[in-house]
Structures are given as C-alpha cells and as structure tokens.
Amino acid sequence: MKNKTRIVPKSLDRIETIGNKLPHPVTLFAVLAIIVLAVSALLANLGISVEHPGQEGEIVEVKNLLNAEGIQYIFASMVDNFIGFAPLGVVLVTMLGIGSRNAQASSPLSCADSSCRFRNSSSLADLSLLVSCRVSHQMLDMSSCLHWAR
To answer: How far does the chain reach from its first CA to its final CA, in angstroms?
Structure first.
C-alpha cells in the first residue's frame, strides 16, 4: 500500500520539476506568436489551401501575416478575435476583480472582516454589517470592471 501512495507525490514532483524548467508564460506566448507568423508566411508562399470543414465547397487559403497586408489584417481583426474568444472575457473580468480587490486594502470588505474578527462577535448587527460590506464590495468591483470595459 505504501508504494501506491508514494507514486502520486513522486509524479507530482516530476511534473513540478518539468514545469519549473519552462520559460515565463509571456516568453512562451511571444515565441509561439513568432512561430505562427513564420509558418503562415511559409504556407502562404507554398500556396496551401484547405476546404472549410463547416461549409462544404468553400476553400480557405493561408494568409501571409508577415507582409503589409497580413500585418494590417492582424490589427484590423484583433478586436474580433478577442471578442470571439469567450473564455478570455471571463479571465479578464476575473483578473480585474482580483486586481481591484488587492489594490483596495482599506475596502469595506476588509474593514468589516477585520472588525468582526477583532471583536470576535457573532451578533446580528455584526452579521448585517458584514453582509452589507460584502455587497458594497461586490458593487465596487463591478463598477471598476465596467469602468475598464468602456
């Protein structure tokens, strides 16, 4: 039984070791973006085209993203790409909420939490204070997210 329980920590240690050897995520993103640009130029110069899987009979050609027209295409379609990628919106709103919460050390939520912990009380007044502060903190986070979304 002990051998089976040691397998999981060893495998997790191995995964952590491999993960620590990876470069920073920004570096990975930049390298992969450069690879995509180079591959698009290569495939466009070779004249590669494929049939669109969702629309029968429609042929899609590879666009060269390294020429002037390709760079213009990248910047012109950037907003549509971000809007069309649903998980990105959730991640951005979450990061904005986390960032605004961390930036507000004296927010109503942290004040109410510390007040209730300091007094170590569980009265109805403290509970209502904590709930109202949590609601106001959520409203504060949402207003900052809406401000940045404009």
So the answer is: 58
